[in-house]
Amino acid sequence: MRATLVVPTLNEAESIGPVLRSFRTAAVEANRGIWASDPIDWEILVVDGASTDGTGDRARAEGARVIVERQKGYGRAYQTGFAAARGDYIATSDGDATYPVETIPALLRRLVDERYDFLSGNRLAYLDRRAMTTEHRIGNRMLNLFLHVAYHHYLAAAEGGRLEDSQSGFWIFRRSILEQIHPREDGMAFSEELKIEVLLQGLRFVEVPIRYGERWGRPKLSSWRDGFGNMLFLYRKRIAIAQAERERRLAHAADTGRTRPG
Asked: pLDDT below 50 — which residues of the chain?
């Protein structure tokens, strides 16, 4: 079985080596243990945003395939990575050492054994306060609250009917679901759009608690700017969903009227 780890990066030369080595060590150990009967052929794919600090070179030195994506955006990097991934399963992580990449092989085992389509990590479960500013924590809570109010009907597809961390970028999923979902956001809202698309399609979704650590290097997020943009996306997406559902109901009613015996 083949799987791909997709890592978007931008000037993360300091952390990308340790991140990839930690993942590789865990993958090798898992292939001797929990994956011994069907070892995974892991591809490591780094989508680099034209870094100027040698991030791409360090990733290549760790055995990664590196694609340079000059168009800016978190979502754009992932769209490029997903299109290029060769694995039957895709896992994701940032390159700043915040996500527990060493847990990916075991979590993939759970996804396969329990027949989930999409697994997402909940960073807020065991949050190290040094890993997220107060503004960032408040923003996450507000976005999660709005999502629960506006999208509660669709959350029934998620295990337990809840999504605690809509902004998490730590995912593992079957590559085949990309034929059913069509996220298009180029920016930070891609993370919540991806999850919403999965839920809209009724795919088997599970969220698991993960540890989220302090990042290496300077933060790239603007809590208020990105938070407002994500909130605006959630609102617009919800309006678009309601409009599409209304149009489907009207079309169904019209078709029923035409086929009803006179």
From this structure: none
